[in-house]
């Protein structure tokens, strides 16, 4: 599958960005294009078609155009926002619905994605450098398409089936082993691009609704459960969700919101299980030795015990990037997790 050659126009980029800003992210698969980065290689594996893209340069041109437009329109954006627009235009089977017209005098919405408390926005030179880095990765074919889901209740089953079916028709399933093989060799195993449907936050609906649809379509899911949610009694799970920034789509009083540990062990037989802290924590909230133990080390050990292997990847609340100088990130690397997912990169750690 070849990326469209022509960069999008300014109005097309802004319309997509406004539509994404107006969309409730908890109610749709959030598509992203991520750069693949190998921190374990020096120099990184060159060339290759990560996901079978015949013309990475065309995709890089499209991303560069998205970044230029957004950077000129909103001082708060990062390359994450340009990658989301690119994915909305090129990956999703149906783009986000157009934003409603603003009332007279109503301020323009921010085009920058939500970030957790404590996150510090990089300077403009740093953000431009990050964008250039990601553009270079796409130009070299080092990319992966990811679609992030959260709660997937029964009321959304048919929409989810249609979305996953569309991805399965256009893309290849991707395991962690596929990512490592590409980073090792610079070669992708298929002529079709790869896609990762990622399911965050440990919802029971991921087991009851999404997992059967993954089996039906042949896709491999990557699951990121905060472990304390699975440990919470069913009667306390709704309060846990409210307290820890979850979005719950259906009112289901009396039902479990979280999957069980047995559910997770069963998922690990076919899918990838990844770390996502104990309580849906942000990296900036994990500083002390006690916080590292509670939010990183204990969850990783529990996942190892239940799934029989070290989690394939790690992600923080808000998708903040790996910082080797931060206590939580250093603990993730020391624990042997090989991949870290952020909003711009899927990075293999040295």
Major sheet characteristics: 9 strands, mixed
- Model regions low in confidence, pLDDT < 50 over at least 5 residues: 42-52
CA radius of gyration is 19 Å
Examine the secondary-structure arrangement and name the CATH architecture. Answer: Alpha-Beta Barrel
Look at the structure and name the CATH superfamily.
Glycoside hydrolase/deacetylase
CATH topology: TIM Barrel
Describe the structure.
The protein is α/β, with parallel strands linked by helices. The chain has one domain (10-99, 114-348): Alpha-Beta Barrel (TIM Barrel), CATH 3.20.20.370. Helices cover 42% and strands 11% of the residues. It has twelve helices and nine strands. Strands 1, 2, 3, 4, 5, 6, 7, 8 and 9 form a nine-stranded mixed β-sheet that branches. α1 crosses α2 (56-73) and α2 packs antiparallel against α4 (124-139). The radius of gyration is 19 Å and the shape is globular.
List the helices and strands and how they pair.
Layout: H1 10-22, E1 30-38, H2 56-73, H3 79-90, H4 124-139, E2 143-149, H5 157-170, E3 172-173, H6 176-185, E4 194-200, H7 204-217, E5 222-224, H8 227-231, H9 234-243, H10 261-267, E6 272-273, H11 289-307, E7 313-314, H12 327-334, E8 339-341, E9 345-348
Parallel strand pairs: 1-9, 2-4, 3-4, 4-5, 5-6, 7-8
Antiparallel strand pairs: 1-2, 8-9
């Amino acid at each position: 599958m070849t990326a469209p050659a022509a960069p999008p126009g300014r109005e097309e980029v802004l319309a997509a960005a406004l539509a994404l800003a107006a969309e409730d992210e908890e109610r749709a698969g959030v598509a992203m294009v991520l750069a693949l980065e190998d921190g374990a290689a020096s120099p990184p594996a060159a060339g290759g078609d990560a996901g079978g893209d015949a013309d990475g340069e065309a995709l890089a041109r499209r991303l560069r155009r998205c970044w230029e437009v957004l950077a000129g329109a909103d001082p708060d954006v990062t390359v994450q926002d340009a990658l989301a627009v690119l994915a909305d235009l090129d990956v999703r089977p149906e783009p986000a619905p157009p934003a409603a017209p603003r009332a007279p005098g109503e301020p323009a919405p921010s085009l920058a994605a939500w970030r957790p408390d404590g996150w510090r926005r990089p300077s403009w030179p740093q953000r431009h450098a990050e964008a250039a880095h990601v553009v270079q990765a796409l130009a070299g074919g080092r990319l992966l398409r990811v679609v992030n889901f959260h709660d997937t209740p029964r009321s959304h089953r048919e929409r989810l089936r249609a979305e996953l079916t569309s991805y399965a028709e256009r893309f290849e399933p991707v395991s962690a082993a596929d990512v490592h093989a590409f980073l090792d060799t610079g070669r992708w195993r298929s002529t079709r691009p790869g896609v990762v449907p990622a399911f965050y936050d440990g919802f029971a609906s991921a087991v009851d609704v999404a997992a059967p649809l993954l089996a039906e379509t042949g896709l491999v899911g990557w699951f990121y459960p905060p472990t304390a949610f699975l440990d919470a009694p069913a009667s306390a799970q709704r309060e846990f969700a409210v307290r820890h920034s979850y979005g719950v789509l259906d009112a289901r009083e009396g039902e479990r919101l979280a999957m069980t540990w047995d559910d997770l062990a069963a998922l690990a037989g076919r899918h990838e299980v990844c770390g996502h802290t104990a309580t849906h924590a942000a990296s900036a909230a994990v500083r002390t030795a006690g916080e590292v133990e509670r939010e990183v080390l204990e969850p990783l050990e529990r996942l190892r015990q239940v799934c029989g292997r070290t989690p394939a990847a790690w992600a923080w609340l808000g998708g903040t990037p790996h910082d080797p100088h931060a206590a939580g990130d250093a603990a993730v690397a020391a624990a042997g997790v090989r991949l870290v997912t952020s909003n711009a990169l899927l990075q293999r750690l040295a």
